[in-house]
Amino acid sequence: MNMNKPALSVITPVYNGADFVERCYKNIIGQSSDNWEWIVVDDGSTDGTAEAVRKIEDRRVRLFSYERNRGRGYARNLAIRESAGDWIVVWDIDDLNFPDRFAAIEKARHLNYDYFCSYAVVVNNNMEMKGTRGFHHPFGCLPRGFVHPTLAVRKDIASKIGYKITRGEGGPAEDARMMWTLSSQYKGLWFEDALTIYQEDRDVNLRKAIDTNLAHLESLKELKKEGLFKAGYPYHLTLWRYFFKISILNMLKLQPGLYPKLMVWRDYGCLINGWRLSPEKMAFIKNTIRME
Asked: pTM of the predicted model, to two decimals?
């Protein structure tokens, strides 16, 4: 066994996230396992993100930086290629994770699962809880769904599937191909508890919502050509839903201020009956708020 080879490669693409670098690093080192590396891809930031990462004196932290912003899909693929671990752990710069996330992922790894996902607590920009995102039932031709920031996956599988390079600011919905393929074709451990704290409001806007749904539609058509999805009623029902959503979002351009208000109706998915966030995790969030 190579003792220098990490079990987990934590990948973080970041564009202008210098203010979150220190918080993110402290959250990672607060995990119950230290058998990891952190690969940060500075996706053409202009705010000193790379300099903030270089200040961290830890050999497990590896930085890749380039001048022109190329989007999250490109950055994630680069991180996967450069990773040394057996598993890839998605960890976005502005999200937080509870201290037991690595331990849960390690169990999935040792049990020979292909990937791992969990619930995510959703917070606003002030770290105030808005709800919990669970798992979505299949719809049309789409398989069961999970929240991408909760994903960990075998490196060989992540390399095979890859992330899509999408159009729009930041490369939105680059993760659809990865999530739909994993859920359809591989064995995952769907962990019925919250391990991730997802800061949803940071970049919520109407333009991103439109670009995201257009990218989903494009990925849907591509995966149908590749054979993951089959022609027929379920596929066309899914197409119709995306066309409908895009039409509604385009209508909202007349009153863009309505979009954030409509977010309260967003479908957060399903949670196991009787699930509640533990007192320990509630305390973790409250302590994080005090440190902000």
From this structure: 0.93
